[in-house]
Amino acid sequence: MSETGSVSLIEALKQSIKTIEMNYSGNWVVTGGNENPGKLKSEQAGRNDSNYDKVVEISSHDFVEMFVCVEGCCALQLEDHVFEIGKGDVGVILPGVSHIELPIKGCTYTGIWIVAHTGRTALHVSGKNSQGFFIADGFTFDTEHNAMLNSIILNMSIEAKNKLPYNIEIVKTYILQVLMTCLRNVENSRNLGLTGVTWKDSVVSDVQNYIEWNYQKQIRVEDISRLVCISNNYLNTIFKAATGKTIMRYIEDFKIDKAMHLLKTTDLSIKEISIRLGYYDQYHFSKMFKKRQRSSPKQFREDQIMPKA
Fold first, then answer.
1. Contact status, residue 235 vs residue 228, Cβ threshold 8 Å
2. Separation of alpha carbons 77 and 19, rounded Å
3. What is the count of structural domains for the chain?
4. Exposure of 110 by Cβ count < 10 A (0-12 exposed, 13-18 middle, 19+ buried)?
5. 71 in the same domain as 182
C-alpha cells in the first residue's frame, strides 16, 4: 500500500478480501453496542480521547454503512463504545447508529467505506498517512449493478440486528459477498473505460447539480448526503476541498446570485423573491442577502436603477 494517500480502490478491495479469507474463522466483525460476539475488545467513549484524532463529527444515518480496515489500525466509535480495529477487521453500521472514524495517534491506516442507500451504493477509500487524514479513490454503482448489491447488504443488516444462532457467521459470508461483488463490478466498469471523471469530481458535480435543480426550496446537507451515499462530514470535506466552500455556503451564494438576478431583471417583490428561493421568510432572506452584499435587497435594487455617481 502506498503511504501517499493515492490508494487504488481495486487494490484495497483485493487486499481486504485476501485478508478476510485468511482469517475467516477469527474475530473480526464489529456490529455496535456493548455485545459484539465477533469482536469483544472495546472501551467507553471519552475514556481515552487523547489517543485519537477527531477528523469529523459523530453522526448517524438512515442507511447501512460498512467499514473495512485494509492496512494499519484505527478505531470506530459506535454509539458510546470505541473499538480499535486492525487489518481485516470490519465494522457493520446499522441505520440510526451514531458513529465516527477515529485515527489513532501515531498510527497510519487505510480503510474502505461502503454505503448503501435505496437506489444507490457508493464506495471510497480513506485513511491516515504521514501527511494526515485523506479520502482517496471511490466508485458509485449504477442502477444495473446496484440491485443485487443492495439485496446482499439488506440481508447482512438483518442478520447483524438479530440474536439468532450463527448470526455473526452469516454476517461474515455477506461481508465477503459485498466485497467480491463490489470488486467485480468496479473492475468490469473500469475495464470498459467508465472512468471519465474521478470519483471526487463526480460527487462534487452531483452536489452542484442537485443544488441547481432544487435551490427553490430549503436544502439540507442530509438530503444531499442520502443522494450520494456519503456521510455529511465526508461530503463536506470533499466538497470544500474542491470548491473552497462548505455545501451550505455554496447554497447560500448560489441563492444570493439568483436573488441578485431577479432583483435586476424582474418586478417581483422582496417577499416573492424570498419565497421563490425557498427562504423561511422575507426577514431571513434580507438578513442573508445583506450579510453577503453589504446592502439590503431593496437598496441593491435601487442602486441598479439609479447607479451612484
1. yes
2. 23
3. 2
4. buried
5. yes
Rounded CA-CA distance 83/78 in Å is 8
**Residue 71 DSSP SS3:** strand
The average pLDDT across 229-257 equals 89
| Listed residue (286, 237, 54) closest to 136, CA to CA | 237
Shared-domain flag, residues 166 and 305? no
Angle at 220 between CA 216 and CA 224, to 5 degrees: 95
- Distance, CA of 282 to CA of 138 (rounded, Å): 41
CATH of the domain at 29: 2.60.120.10
Residue 14: count other Cβ atoms within 10 Å of its Cβ: 16
**C-alpha torsion sign, points 285, 227, 4, 110:** positive
C-beta separation of 22 from 34 below 8 A: no
Q: In the predicted model, what is the mean pLDDT of residues 204-215?
A: 91
Q: Is residue 262 part of a domain?
A: yes
Cα(20)–Cα(28) distance, integer angstroms? 8
Q: Residue 309's domain is classified under what CATH number?
A: 1.10.10.60
Task: Give the residue from 174, 191, 208 where a domain finishes.
Answer: 191
Asked whether residue 3 is assigned to any structural domain, the reply reads no
What dihedral angle (degrees, nearest 10) is formed by the CA atoms of 126, 148, 158, 101?
Answer: 0
The set of cell numbers assigned to 285 is: 432572506
CA 269 from centre of chain: 39
pTM above 0.85, yes or no: no
Percentage above 70 pLDDT, the chain: 86
Domain-ending residue, one of 191, 214, 248: 191
pLDDT given for residue 192 in this prediction: 66
